[in-house]
Each structure stands twice: as structure tokens, then as C-alpha cells.
Amino acid sequence: MSPAATVAQAIAERARFFERAYAAADAASLVDGYFATDDHGPMALPPGATPPVRGRKALKQMFAGMIPEMPVIRLETVELVASDAVASETGRAFLTGKDGSQNIGRFVVCWIMTSEGWRAKTDFFAEDGWPD
Fold it and tell me: What are the pLDDT digits (tens) for 30-49?
């Protein structure tokens, strides 16, 4: 497998982990297994958040508040550019609300290689995605 394919596979595995933890409403597991540790300064830039949500504790609180409203998520990578230590992913998020409503969001994740493998350092997401 090529180095680029190896990175793409590892990041895809993190995305599937995110989806499973999200579906299980396990914000703590989601953050611990998806985001970089606090010494790497993990943060999210969700819609309407000023300033960014920083650190695993705050990220866990953020996801614990989000998951009940939109309990199902599926992530789709549109583009991934990577080196040995840093990657940038752009994609779409397909969400299902607790009322059954369907939403499409967009995201950009800055990935870094850590001692735990590839982890999200910065996760930007917005509710407005593109349909196709």
C-alpha cells in the first residue's frame, strides 16, 4: 500500500470511529479517540462558537450537547491531502435529527500524526453543506 493510501485508510478508520462513538452517544470516547491530546491543542470551530472550543474537556461537553439533537451522523471525505505528519481533509456530514429531519453539513479537519496515530487537531464544521 502506498504511503498516501495508508494515511487515507488511517483517517477513514478515525472517521468510522467517530461515527460509531457518535451513534452510541459517547462523547467522551468520541473525543478521546478522535482528537489529539490536550498538549497538541485540539479545538473545534462549530457554527456560532466564538471563540473556538479548545481542549478535550470542552470538546466532550460540546459533543454531549450536540448528539441528542442530531443523533446520527455519516462522514464523507471529498478531498484529503497529506504528508507524513499533517493532513487536511474536506468533506460532508450527513446528519439525522431526533425528529427524523435530514441535514447536510460540511467540514475541514486538520489531522496530525501523534503517538496515538492520526488525530484531529482542528475540526471546523458548519450546518450548510452541498447536496451533490
Answer: 999 999 999 999 999 998 87
CB count in 10 Å sphere of residue 17: 14
Query: What gap in Å lies between CA 43 and CA 24, rounded to an integer?
Result: 22
Element (H, E) at 120: strand 117-126
CB 54 within 8 A of CB 43: yes
Please give the model's pTM, rounded to 2 decimal places. 0.93
- DSSP secondary structure letter of residue 101: -
| 117-126 sheet: strands from edge to edge | 53-54, 43-45, 117-126, 102-114, 86-96, 72-82
C-alpha grid cell for residue 89? 481533509
